[in-house]
Write a structure and sequence with these properties.
It is built from 13 helices and seven strands. Helix 1 packs across helix 6 and helix 11 runs antiparallel to helix 12. The chain binds NADP nicotinamide-adenine-dinucleotide phosphate. NADP nicotinamide-adenine-dinucleotide phosphate binds next to helix 1, helix 2, helix 4 and strand 5.
């Protein structure tokens, strides 16, 4: 497949976390040979047994030393230290491919490995994983953000080929935009969860159950419409300029949870400005909505 790559690589996985075990399983399914994985906690050992059966569990330095393709799927905050430690221990060698899966980092964090002649790649699956077997299919249904060294076209091609082997779609993310790319994804995926849970909790506080069943079709349709139609998908009191309703919402939410009311106020302001930019709300209506939002709670 790739540029100057053998068809079947010896893959080492550090470690059998939620992502490492799933990406490892995907590459095994593509025909690569999983030579070893690391994992100490009960959760990682259990995931390895389920997703990487018969793959020996070894310390990280031995996993990397024996690999043509070393996958470093460790928490963002320990990645730099793990790379430095492995480099200091002499685990990297020229010709190895070293991949990490962090969205927050580009290939810069792999510099201590690159100094030993490895091909560094950042392959970030744009998906949320729990480390279960169904995640392998989820990985294949989505995209992976690929970053390789600037100007090294062969390295970018190897990264893209490795993503295609996962069954996923590669998307090139230049090193310098990686932090903003990751911030945008976290804002969407993580804060969506907070919004949904705030919605569900507030309904349950009002005695309305099962709240999840009530809101699932509404929220699914809103997400689908936003992705298909952009800001023009917006409905509701802000988009209509119904300032009396917005004021009542702030009063009700403020009575049960002032912090939630503050979040609503901020998001409603942003919603009003987006609605105006999309031509949904006239200037005077935007001013009215923003004036209500600026009222002292
Ligand atoms: N989960 C997601 O949805 C997702 C999606 C895309 C990208 N990512 C990225 O993928 C990376 C891994 O995330 P994850 O969710 O898979 O994390 P995770 O489930 O917490 O797994 C982390 C793994 O790293 C191991 N580990 C922790 N500290 C280590 C160290 N100092 N040396 C060697 N191994 C160590 C853990 O082993 P033990 O359990 O034995 O301690 C565990 O197997 C992160 O960069 C994350 O941002 C995650």
């Amino acid at each position: 497949m790739g540029v100057g790559r053998p068809a079947r690589l010896a893959v080492g996985v550090v470690s059998a976390g939620r992502v490492g075990s799933v990406v490892g399983a995907a590459w095994a399914a593509a025909g690569h040979h999983l030579v070893a994985a690391s994992g100490v906690s009960r959760a990682s050992v259990r995931r390895a047994a389920a997703l990487l059966p018969d793959v020996p569990l070894l310390p990280p330095d031995e996993v990397v030393t024996g690999a043509d393709l070393a996958l470093l799927a460790v928490p963002d905050d320990v990645l730099a230290g793990v790379v430095k430690g492995l480099a200091a221990a002499g685990c990297f060698r020229p010709g190895q491919i070293v991949v990490h899966t962090s969205g927050a980092h580009g290939v810069g964090v792999l510099a201590p490995a690159a100094e030993h002649g490895v091909l560094p790649l950042a392959l970030h699956p744009v998906m949320t994983f729990t480390g279960r077997t169904e995640d392998v299919a989820r990985l294949a249904a989505g995209s992976v953000g690929v970053t390789a060294a600037e100007g090294d076209e062969a390295a970018w091609s190897v990264g893209e080929a490795l993503v295609v082997e996962m069954g996923a779609e590669p998307v090139r993310i230049p090193e310098q935009v990686r932090p903003l790319y990751h911030a945008a994804l976290a804002h969407g995926a993580n804060h969506l969860v907070t919004l949904v849970r705030d919605c569900v909790d507030t309904l349950e506080r009002a005695g309305i159950r099962p709240a999840e069943r009530l809101v699932a079709p509404l929220l699914s349709a809103a997400l689908d419409n936003a992705l298909r139609h952009g800001d023009r998908a917006l409905t509701g009191p802000v988009a209509r300029g119904d300032v009396g309703t917005v004021r009542a919402h702030l009063r009700e939410l403020g009575a049960v949870d002032p912090d939630l009311a503050e979040t609503y106020r901020r998001l409603a302001g942003r919603t009003a400005r987006r609605a105006a930019a999309a031509g949904l709300l006239a200037d005077h209506a935007v001013r009215d909505v923003l004036a209500i939002l600026e009222e002292t709670p």
